[in-house]
Design brief:
Distance between the termini of chain A: 72 Å
CATH topology of the largest domain in chain A: Tetracycline Repressor, domain 2
Order of helices and strands of chain A: HHHHHHHHH
Structural class of chain A: mainly alpha
CATH class of the largest domain in chain A: Mainly Alpha
Radius of gyration of chain A: 20 Å
Helix content of chain A: over 70%
Shape of chain A: elongated
Oligomer: homotetramer
Largest sheet of chain A: none
Strand content of chain A: under 5%
Chain lengths: 208, 208, 208, 208
DNA sequence: GATGAATGAGACTTCATTCAT
DNA sequence: AATGAATGAAGTCTCATTCAT
């Protein structure tokens, strides 16, 4: 086995390019064929390389999948954080986040699909879901941050932030899933409706 | 070919019992090992029978999976319909449905897990998701029925019923997923919070 | 195991009828699906009985196949013998046999097909063809009898009777095979041509 | 998927060698164990390789079988054509073809056996014989060519060329089959007798 | 760095056969 | 006499992984 496996200090340019190419192919194949259907053969074929190349650059299929998740998650989180950093009120952040994520989904459906496929299917050797908790956790914390802000500013009524975050996350992901399954569906209109739903669900009671 | 294939009205008692036993084992194995990990070997082992028995009672693995879905879906839909049929207002139906489903999930987690696994992973020979749209559609229609009622009675504000139903469904499923992943999580409290969320999201504006 | 296996003295009427029914179904299935495709399931299904019945009446699949061969061969040989017994000259017998066999083939194609399938495919446990030599041998002897008669009467020129019989048999069987594959082919015209061929191939030289 | 699938012009040397080796093993196993007995296990064992190697070089068992047929048929047809191309009269071609084919059969019995096994047993997914008509058709046309020549030159009497070709083909094949079953049989003597038979069956009537 | 080639485990399925009822 | 049920071996195929070149 060569030094690459250590993944350590310096990766050559070719090394980086190849890994990126393989990851990109993996994302597309997973998005199309599902986690279960994404064999190394298919990924290699999509990338126009031989199967052995993948094994050369990745210790195992698991490592490839983990790299895929890492890249997508990084991108998504960066995007989410970025999309709300300039909003002033918690309500605006809330609404902005939903609309922005919808925009991101429209631009990168394969990534979102692949992330979903892997995190709901990939398992550790012991049979447990590899990304059971952690994968969502990072995003849940970001969402909870929005609600904490609203609670702090007094914009939002009292509610369990974890439950709201789980619900929020589910609603956004399934908006995507529904859109992916129903090509004609209007994603932006859906997002706008969804934003309404959460604004109403979180805001303080109207004064009597 | 055995009598079952004819699909005729009467199956022997043993036939019914075996099919039920195999379906039950399949549900447990899928819930534990995931759709991809649920091999006929594992299912047979769990049922304490030989692999051939499954092939004897089911034409193919697909047929077994479809039977699993059919049984669970029937149970779930019956339950959902039953749980709300006596409520008077749409708001009560809405709240009641969420609480009742949570109760059902607490009682039958494996079924819900298996249904989710199969419907998000099983694919037709052509590569498309076997239960892509139709499976959810039935439930979405039921949920839309609740919102239609609320619109009719004037309890609910105007909103897109399909978006609300998709969101509602996602929220409930992910409540389950979160609970399944976090054993210590309080499912009933989550359900109560969720009911609040949807009641607020759907109700008419408070008068100024 | 019951007494039936011994095949001995007395078989009940039902026993006989069942065996005949199963043999008949086997013949049809083999003719349609080939020896390799003729599973006990298919045969049972065709007969409208359960698979177990076959095992009840026949010790093994081999025994069933042997019974099939026995019945068909008996019928064919009787027919062949019968069809030529009244002819006076060897030439007439030769011509008559070919025409008569063609007629028989038209009436019982499944039997001929099945006989051919079994004798060219069924193997003994040691891997050798079960009906390699004997099956054809009986027929070859009958054909040699015709040539011997012609040699005795002086109608036929000198030739190797075994080679002629093998050729004759092959020609007749392949006439059937060609007809079976080409439904529009004129079997009777073929037989007439074939008779001409063998009459010319066997007759004494025309005097100079 | 390996390069072979593309069907491209160039296969690596190893690829070609392996395919040839596997085809050769397949031929021997089929000749010995019959089409039905020729499992991939047996073929791999005979070749001294693992089962997976066959799957690596051939998409499916069908593809292997088709390659086997292609190679044998090519060889046989080339041989037949070659063996008669220098003969002057149709009668000489006829006699020469039979003797030459017998010689070829003596040299390559396994090929002939395998070709016969596959073409009479291999079936398409729909149950019809894979090589029902076309396989024989090519050879029948070649034989008809001989008769057409004899008709054209006036050497042969009038007869149905298709019937004669079918008979000729059957006679030659069964000569082989008889020899294969009866090791002591004199193949060359048989061929000589057979040539006599067809010369007599086709020649013009002796002048009165 | 990259590839083709090979492997062996494991998946699904079919099938002849056995057995209790 | 018949059946449904069960078995286990064997078959074909897929796949992640390893290795020599």
């Amino acid at each position: 086995m060569s030094a690459r496996a250590a993944g350590g200090d310096k990766q050559s340019f070719i090394e980086q390019a190849r890994r990126a190419q393989i990851v990109a192919s993996a994302i597309k194949v997973i998005a199309e064929a599902g986690y279960g259907g994404a064999s190394l053969s298919l990924i290699a074929e999509h990338a126009g390389i031989s199967k052995g190349v993948i094994s050369y650059h990745f210790t195992s299929k698991s490592e490839l999948m983990e790299e895929v998740v890492r890249r997508i998650l990084k991108e998504v989180v960066e995007f989410v954080v970025d999309s709300v950093k300039d909003e002033a009120s918690a309500t605006a952040v809330l609404r902005g986040q939903i609309l922005a994520v919808a925009g991101h989904m429209r631009e990168r459906p394969a990534e979102i699909m692949a992330l979903h496929e892997i995190s709901s299917n990939m398992r550790a050797p012991d049979g447990s879901l590899r990304y059971g908790i952690e994968a969502a956790e990072e995003i849940l914390r970001l969402l909870e941050g929005i609600y904490e802000m609203g609670h702090h500013t007094g914009e939002f009524r009292e509610f369990d932030r974890r439950v709201m975050a789980v619900t929020h996350n589910a609603a956004v992901i399934d908006m995507f899933a529904y859109w992916a399954t129903h090509p004609g569906h209007d994603l932006d209109a859906h997002a706008a409706e969804l934003a309404d739903i959460f604004v109403r669900a979180t805001r303080k009671e109207s004064p009597a």
